[in-house]
Amino acid sequence: MSTSQQQIPLQLVGRINQLAAQAPLPSPLSAEDKQQLKERIKLLLKQRNAQIVAHYYVDAELQALAEETGGIVADSLEMANFGAQSNADMLVVCGVRFMGETAKMLSPEKVVLMPDLNATCSLDVGCPADEFAAFCAHHPDHTVVVYANTSVEVKAIADWVVTSGNALQIVRHLKAQGEKIIWAPDQHLGHWIEKETGIEMLRWMGHCIVHDEFKAFELEQLKREHPDAKVLVHPESAESVVALADVVGSTKVLINAVQTLPDQKFIVATDHGIFYKMRQLAPHKKLIVAPTDSKTTQCISCAHCPWMAMNGLQNLADVLEKCDQRIEIDEAIRVKALRSVERMLDFSRAQGLVKVK
Ligand code: SF4
After folding, report:
1. Which of 160, 166, 198, 305 has minimal CB crowding within 10 Å?
2. Ligand 1 centre and the CA of 229: distance in Å?
3. In angstroms, rounded to a whole number, what is the distance separating the alpha carbons of residues 271 and 76?
4. Residue nearest atom 2 in ligand 1 by C-alpha distance
């Protein structure tokens, strides 16, 4: 193992797998129930002056409802930007907890709700703030760059927050200034950034349980079966999978590739919730989920995040009705974490990476 890597303890890996296995799925609904819930949600959104801020990985019906009601479907960078610029009194974040925390951090005056506050992320769980603080304390001469998929406490330790939509640009910017960097928590994204930018970083070795499951050997076989398909890979996947890609990038980059490339067929290595937006923008193109099973191992997440899947129509309607499941953040922590998030947003707006109202 290289000295530039910080492994996470095995107990933590066990806890992540246990949480993923126990993530409750919303109960199946009849078409009639769905229609009634959607009507109720639309009414409550109006009554509360609320907007839905949804991620590309949640259920297609939630994404459609967010768009229909004046909310947004986006990656975590655009979600944060939209929430901060929204005139709503209330934001309902359909995604995972760190996204709700980021929305609250940027809009403390707004009520921020989530259909289920227990929807977490393996990267967040795999980077506990106290252990990460101790790691950073050993390297005081380093600039601390953390991925958005972290708790507010970890963001409060960081100098910069990044998303997969701006990580390359921000690390290049820091490299140009001669900074030494601690990177956390996704090991694969960190490694891809190292290769792209030529910088070596001290890396925290967390992982996304969804992207970690894509299999290179099986992907090569699938490529042979579909020689006319382009392979799209999110950089949270292992290096061996990234090496097989025609396009590597954030959710936004992958969606853009499906929409703009002339090819008609794509093998996609990211959460298949993204197919809703890809099909909306390129309805005639064929999309194939990259393989997550092998002869020796079976998938656990199977290309769909168990925590994103916790968001459903029923718990969305319930949270709008009761206004419980609120994100609350200690003010001192919020103010500290805000510096690194605002630095990211200011940089992204200046570079034209997000929309400015
Ligand atoms: S897909 Fe991976 S990175 Fe995204 S929320 Fe789920 S576990 Fe976290």
Report:
1. 198
2. 25
3. 14
4. 208
Residue with the nearest Cα to atom 8 of ligand 1? Answer: 121
Q: Return per-residue pLDDT of the chain as tens, 357 residues.
A: 455 688 998 999 999 999 999 999 999 999 999 999 999 999 999 999 999 999 999 999 999 999 999 999 999 888 988 999 999 999 999 999 999 999 999 999 999 999 999 999 999 999 999 999 999 999 999 999 999 999 999 999 999 999 998 999 999 999 999 999 999 999 999 999 999 999 999 999 999 999 999 999 999 999 999 999 999 999 999 999 999 999 999 999 999 999 999 999 999 999 999 999 999 999 999 999 999 988 888 998 999 999 999 999 999 999 999 999 999 999 999 999 999 999 999 999 899 887 776
Kindly give the interhelix angle for 331-350 and 97-106, rounded to the nearest 10 degrees: 90
Question: Which residue lies with its CA nearest to atom 3 of ligand 1?
Answer: 208
- Tell me, in angstroms, the distance from the centre of ligand 1 to residue 238's CA: 14
What pTM, to 2 d.p., does this model score? 0.96
Going by C-beta distance under 8 Å and a sequence separation of 6 or more, which residues neighbour residue 178?
A: none
Determine the distance separating the centroid of ligand 1 and the alpha carbon of 190, expressed in angstroms: 15
What SS3 string covers 255-320? Answer: HHHHHHCCCCEEEEECCHHHHHHHHHHCCCCEEEECCCCCCCCCCCCCCCCCCHHHCCHHHHHHHH
